[in-house]
Design a protein that fits this description.
Elements lengths: L1 H8 L2 E8 L2 E15 L4 E7 L3 E6 L2 E5 L3 H16 L4 E6 L4 H6 L7 E5 L3 H10 L1 H4 L8 E4 L3 H6 L6 E7 L15 H10 E10 L7 H12 L4 E9 L4 E9 L9 H10 L10 H17 L17
Parallel strand pairs: 6-7, 6-9, 7-8, 9-10
Antiparallel strand pairs: 1-2, 2-3, 3-4, 4-5, 10-12, 11-12
Helix pairs in contact: 9-10
Bound molecules: spermidine.
The site of spermidine (SPD) has 14 residues, from strand 5 and helix 3.
């Protein structure tokens, strides 16, 4: 009892802006690690509601409670839309979870993960090894520490089947806001093969409405077909949006059976959230969430980036 009381007394409340109208507080049991990398502030916290968690610039990125919901929804619909992804690039995604999901596809021959911040990758491996699992031992995996936009630009045209963009939110002064612009999406499209598919995290359609709608509008300037999915992220305290771009198909064109079949053919297993049925359920929820709040949207450009709080 005595020990439990002492333990509790070290706990404190962490506050995090969800939007400029919403500040959240959650209990932190223990700070495992805190440092400033070359690009951002990094914290690994044992939180009471979400378990062990990685935060960048004060914002939740991945918690053991539900990171699989985010990463499975980001990666698998894009891979399923392509159907036979062989060369895949993850831009960002430093804790390794998106790469872990890509590697479930046996069709994949080469999977790049390109993160500007080597320290995020190293500290995640040290303090949150559950997130990357054994993915860095996979011979198909290539790790690159470089600005994702610069790196993608240096690749050949039509090189990738799927490009997954797994970033921190577009924060003013942060390392990722120039990877939400029309100029960046043009680079992505040109490095995708004809049937290539692109997926990006797209902030919350409910709490960051202008940002979500603007990301969608900006992607639609570049890709013929743009679609979206929303899932509820417990540790972000928000419904969370993902936008997919391609030449032809959108996520709404995939039936539950088609998703199951393509994943079976590709030997995908071990998923904890996503399935054909969940895909269809998310489409229904997405309509609901995106109807809840509407906002004007604008095209995001390098010269007029968009920031959230
Ligand atoms: N509000 C937090 C949003 C974080 C989005 N990116 C998470 C990246 C995890 N790989």
């Amino acid at each position: 009892m005595q020990a439990r009381r002492r333990e509790k007394s070290r706990a404190f409340w962490w506050t995090e802006w969800i939007s400029e109208d919403l500040l959240e507080a959650y209990r932190v049991e223990r700070v495992i690690h805190e440092s400033a990398t070359k690009y951002q502030r990094l914290a690994v916290l044992e939180t009471a509601p979400f378990g062990l968690s990685l935060l960048l610039d004060g914002k939740m990125q991945s918690s053991l409670l539900d990171e699989h919901i985010y990463h499975e929804t980001l990666v698998h619909p894009a891979m399923a839309l392509h159907g036979d992804p062989r060369r895949v690039a993850v831009i960002g995604g430093g804790e390794g979870s998106a790469l872990r999901e890509v590697a479930r596809w046996k069709t994949v021959e080469e999977a790049y993960m390109v993160d500007i911040d080597q320290e995020v990758v190293e500290l995640s491996r040290k303090y949150l090894p559950q997130l990357s699992g054994s993915v860095y031992e996979d011979p198909r995996v290539r790790l690159v520490f470089e600005d994702g936009r610069k790196w993608l630009k240096s690749q050949n045209q039509g090189e990738f089947d799927v490009v997954i963009v797994d970033l921190t939110d577009p924060l003013e002064g942060g390392p990722s806001y120039l990877l939400y612009t029309e100029e960046f999406y043009k680079i992505v499209r040109s490095r995708l093969s004809e049937k290539g598919v692109f997926a990006t995290q797209a902030t919350s359609p409910v709490h960051n409405t202008l940002s979500f709608q603007s990301i969608k509008l900006t992607v639609s300037q570049v890709f013929a077909r743009v679609s979206e999915l929303v899932c509820f992220m417990i540790s972000f305290s928000a419904p969370w949006g993902f936008v997919y771009g391609s030449a032809r198909l959108g996520v709404g064109d995939l039936s539950a059976e088609a998703v199951e079949q393509v994943m079976r053919m590709a030997g995908v297993d071990g998923l904890r959230f996503y399935s054909g049925e969940v895909h269809r359920a998310l489409l229904e929820l997405t309509k609901h969430y995106t109807r809840l709040r509407q906002a004007p949207a604008r095209i995001i450009r390098d010269s007029s980036p968009l920031f959230i709080k």
